[in-house]
Every structure is written in structure tokens, then in C-alpha cells.
Amino acid sequence: MSLFSKIFIAICVVFIAGCAGSGNYTKTYRQVAEPVGENDAFMLDKGARPRLIVSENFEDDLKTFTDQNFIVLGKSDFKGPPEKFDDAIDIGEKLGVTHVLVTIEYLYEAQKKAYKVYENYDYVREVRVINGHYYPVYQAIPDPISVPYYKKFAIYSHKAVYLVKLKNN
Question: 23, exposed or middle or buried, with CB in 10 Å at 0-12, 13-18, 19+?
Fold first, then answer.
């Protein structure tokens, strides 16, 4: 593999790792209410995972929860390609909430320019003298070919709220 190919692959890995590192649910998380404790709310038990609720009618379901004495501790909201809900569940687990309400809504189809890189070599002829005899030697010089194309992907609106039920005092 040529040096250029190795550098290109390293840049792609760094870019992908940057996009896939901590998820967008974590990056866009905003605290909405003051943190509550065991005395004020029914918090998540140790070792348990919050209940994930995927909603098609997000605002109606959120109203149903708030009518049942749930409060929103925080929310995440972003637009981008589809993501797994594991990041949202992890946030809920760290907050100690019992429910994570999420929705994902299709917005539009997007495209961006990308490149497919193919290995290619140019051969250069050299003449070497060994024991007074001339020998032609060919040396391969990497000359990668990059072919541009448009990569299509869908953009979605992602929302998540982190809910916990208050105790009636």
C-alpha cells in the first residue's frame, strides 16, 4: 500500500472516529430542570437501564408523561443521519432517569462529494551498473487515482427527553 493511501485511510479513520465518538445525543444534551434526588423522585435503581420509548407523536406523548407527574430533566435535539438510541439510554442512565422518550423524523435526502481512491503505480526505468554490466531496473512509484462521486444519505430530526416521576409529598 502506498504512503498516500495510508495517509488517506488515516485521515478517514480520524474523521469517522470524530463523527462516531461520543454521539450527538451527548453533544446536544441540555439540562432543563434542576437535578432531583431520591427524596423528590423515583430514580433509576442501580444497575438498571432506563426504559426507552420511541414515539411517533412526540409532543402528545410528552404531555401524557408530564400530566402523570413526570418532569423533564434534560433534552437532546439535533439533525443528522440516523443514530442508534444507545447514546440516549446512556445519558438517561447517568442522570438516573427511569424513562427516555425519543423520536426520529425524516427531513430530506442529502448528498456530499466523496472520493474512491484506487492504487496505481507508474514505473520508472533505471539503469544500474553491476560488475561493469548495465541492467535495466524498474521502480514502482505510487500514483493513486481518486474518483469523485456523490454519496447520498438521509437527514433526520432527532429528539430525546429524559424523564423521571416526582413523588407526591
Answer: buried
Alpha helices (H) along 3-85: 3-20, 24-27, 58-67
Per-residue pLDDT of the chain (169 residues; tens, 9 = 90+): 565 555 555 454 444 444 444 588 888 888 877 777 667 767 767 777 888 888 898 899 888 888 888 888 888 999 988 888 888 888 888 888 888 899 999 999 988 888 999 999 988 888 888 888 888 888 888 989 999 989 898 889 999 998 888 777 5
Task: Give the whole-angstrom CA distance, residue 89 versus residue 82.
Answer: 16
pTM above 0.85, yes or no: no
Torsions phi, psi for 29 (to 5 deg): -65, 135
